[in-house]
């Protein structure tokens, strides 16, 4: 089975921001914090806006995939209901013929016994 690819928004975020946020130890964290503090307000605003934009794109992708999943679930439910209905008809018990109707060829001389009261 092939490994699923990451959504494009996440790949972009990892490529651009990964070195700053995917740190392994305290020294790397401190270095990232110093780099962030060294940015001016415009650079920080742009980075935050860019991260927000990537987040919105990722959320839109999730919403789209959930809508596709709900549609497929609805179709599957409908097909299952139709299949179960057809199966119920196929497995329905056949009504038994009354005993009077069994001698359709007149092979017996006996009349059907009357029902006891």
In short:
This protein has 117 residues and is mostly helical. The chain has a domain at 8-64. The protein is built from 3 helices and no strands.
Q: Any idea what the shape is?
A: rod-shaped
What is the total tally of β strands? 0
Percentage beta strand: under 5%
- Sketch the major β-sheet: none
What gyration radius follows from the Cα positions, in whole Å?
A: 36 Å
Low-confidence stretches: none
Number of helices: 3
State mean pLDDT (0 to 100 scale).
84
Q: State the end-to-end CA separation.
A: 73 Å
Describe the structure.
The protein is mainly alpha-helical and 117 residues long. The longest helix has 51 residues, at 41-91. Helix content is 67%, strand content 0%. The mean pLDDT is 84. It is rod-shaped, with a radius of gyration of 36 Å. It has a domain at 8-64. The N and C termini lie far apart (73 Å). The protein has three helices and no strands.
Write the layout of secondary structure elements.
Elements: H1 8-21, H2 26-38, H3 41-91
List keywords for this structure.
mainly alpha; single chain; 117 residues; rod-shaped
